[in-house]
Prior knowledge:
Layout: H1 6-20, H2 25-45, H3 52-61, E1 64-69, H4 75-85, E2 94-99, H5 102-116, E3 124-128, E4 131-132, E5 140-144, H6 145-154, E6 161-166, H7 174-190, H8 196-205, H9 216-226, E7 235-240, H10 246-251, E8 256-260, E9 267-271, H11 279-293, E10 298-302, H12 306-321, E11 330-335, H13 341-346, E12 356-361, H14 364-367, E13 374-379, E14 382-389, E15 394-401, H15 404-412, E16 420-424, H16 428-433, H17 448-456, H18 473-485, H19 499-505, H20 510-521, H21 525-535, H22 548-556, H23 564-583, H24 588-602, H25 606-625, H26 637-647, E17 652-655, E18 661-663, E19 669-672, E20 685-693, E21 697-704, H27 707-713
Parallel strand pairs: 1-7, 1-8, 2-5, 2-6, 3-5, 6-7, 9-16, 10-12, 10-13, 11-12, 13-16, 19-21
Antiparallel strand pairs: 3-4, 14-15, 17-18, 17-20, 18-19, 20-21
Helix pairs in contact: 1-2, 4-5, 6-7, 17-18, 17-19, 19-20, 20-21, 20-26, 21-23, 21-25, 23-24
The chain binds cytidine-5'-diphosphate and magnesium ion (MG).
Residues 75-76, 167 line the site of magnesium ion (MG).
Amino acid sequence: xxxxxxxxxxxxxxxxxxxxxxxxxxxxxxxxxxxxxxxxxxxxxxxxxxxxxxxxxxxxxxxxxxxxxxxxxxxxxxxxxxxxxxxxxxxxxxxxxxxxxxxxxxxxxxxxxxxxxxxxxxxxxxxxxxxxxxxxxxxxxxxxxxxxxxxxxxxxxxxxxxxxxxxxxxxxxxxxxxxxxxxxxxxxxxxxxxxxxxxxxxxxxxxxxxxxxxxxxxxxxxxxxxxxxxxxxxxxxxxxxxxxxxxxxxxxxxxxxxxxxxxxxxxxxxxxxxxxxxxxxxxxxxxxxxxxxxxxxxxxxxxxxxxxxxxxxxxxxxxxxxxxxxxxxxxxxxxxxxxxxxxxxxxxxxxxxxxxxxxxxxxxxxxxxxxxxxxxxxxxxxxxxxxxxxxxxxxxxxxxxxxxxxxxxxxxxxxxxxxxxxxxxxxxxxxxxxxxxxxxxxxxxxxxxxxxxxxxxxxxxxxxxxxxxxxxxxxxxxxxxxxxxxxxxxxxxxxxxxxxxxxxxxxxxxxxxxxxxxxxxxxxxxxxxxxxxxxxxxxxxxxxxxxxxxxxxxxxxxxxxxxxxxxxxxxxxxxxxxxxxxxxxxxxxxxxxxxxxxxxxxxxxxxxxxxxxxxxxxxxxxxxxxxxxxxxxxxxxxxxxxxxxxxxxxxxxxxxxxxxxxxxxxxxxxxxxxxxxxxxxxxxxxxxxxxxxxxxxxxxxxxxxxxxxxxxxxxxxxxxxxxx
Length: 724
Ligand code: CDP
Ligand code: MG
């Protein structure tokens, strides 16, 4: 009945559905239009909607614009659409928006595609490392800041873009900082016509951003691409949630900054009386207190990482089961970077009627994504941050107190839709001791990756580069030294040919790129490709607490006495073989079912393995383009281990009499992580992939090597001094 009100139509269909168990087309259509209507309403009510015209005018009249706005005001989702509608991506040009986090790029792109009523990958798409959904019709492209930096290697003027929006600039990731410096130069170059001389003069004038001198062929081909072309000017927009636009404005020579008024309701801040000894325990107590004593409204909990989130989730579920049935109506959801995107999207859905949503999030929910419905925030006051010790050259993730700015952002999440409450799990006196804002990442990370990229872009003088905040010269020197040791740079700190160029082309940490390049000489590139793919994903072993013994037994059938790297290869190959076999003559559903069963029996995380297969395919493509020979060493794991030693020589450690290890390059004392095949039987000398600092200094993914190989395979580093 066409005149029937949507509500009535839906109800009658619902009862039918219950009978035949299907959702009718009518029902879907009603749901579709209802959602479309809801989204249109939501968009209209965003604070940014009322200033659309003014913002577009500001962008038209300023080549650099800084936009500061309260989180949730609609900057990330709306501004690109405003600019698109205003025709700021004419002639097939693209509006690019960078995000520090993959999750944000993906979730926002999906949302915006839906708002525009288009399929993801058409007008709106995203591109992150190893996952590109864009097409030639994409005009609004969300991506990570790291990805745009990589694009600059192939297209130094970023000529595909008419507008680049650096979003979440206040996060000051190392990629954002480097991009800002680069874009400043690119923008100047793009304001004039390109010809060989003007180009180089102009570039020289701009922070030494020269074309690659060493590689004439590359230089000629890039120049050919651009010569005589007058590139359209590039609009640059810096967006930030924090109120301090001054630093960005000063950096861009007094660029104009505009504020988008947000809508913020009052938030009651509650502190604990005493410091908490166990913040996870305190989190649980507070969570249940809110749930049982406070009125309706969703709860957002800030935790430091995936493991912590998963363990809190289990504990919440356990406790919930002990409550009377009426009090069990809680939907626990989580959001962190490595969560698959379908799961991430669930946090944006409203909870079922009568249920309270509890969202366990990392600092991603501070400003990157806005989750509707939050009334209560629990902030234990910690965050996982990268730290780098230039002295030892070791980088690690550690849990540190948040800054004041972060604490304020977190509490702000409770007051988006009405008055809220924020429970800070520390005394008020502690708040005063927090630092005002987070130290930019460039001051606390290993710089070898960005230095390699800058070198490939022709920026020779790293210290002289126009950074918004200069990295410490000690860290720069240490990273340059590392790149020399890996053979990516010559003794004069120039990109080496071909190794340095090859390493810069691979979208991997320099040490992984080195391992791949070396593996082609050791005839084990097939094995190293698998290893690098497996090391690039989260753990492939699934260890549920309640079935720990079973999981350990299952893992044993893959474990290799040689180490964790060969074990990872064995898992990958077993998965691959099973998939191939299962594919033969079976339908897709059947294959899927078999695979799920296989993974369950073997305690394997199938998502991680699929991800590894994807990454493998993509790096393989890069490697093939470089013309390296992909051969297997077969059963000769000796060859493979020697190759690992030749690449990871800086991560070599020697066993000490007490069963711990000493890292040869730094003198750091470490222990083997419990997940390793060597947790119990400890070899004399090892190389490891990763240094993890938790309650102990652990090293993860360990393979045994022969101590004598080090001087033989890495003579540039190990002379007889280490051979005592
Ligand atoms: O960037 P900013 O923090 O200013 O806001 P935004 O990310 O553009 O979000 C604007 C609105 O869109 C918020 O109210 C979100 O709740 C909503 N949104 C959503 O419902 N689902 C998403 N995946 C992203 C945003
Ligand atoms: Mg945003």
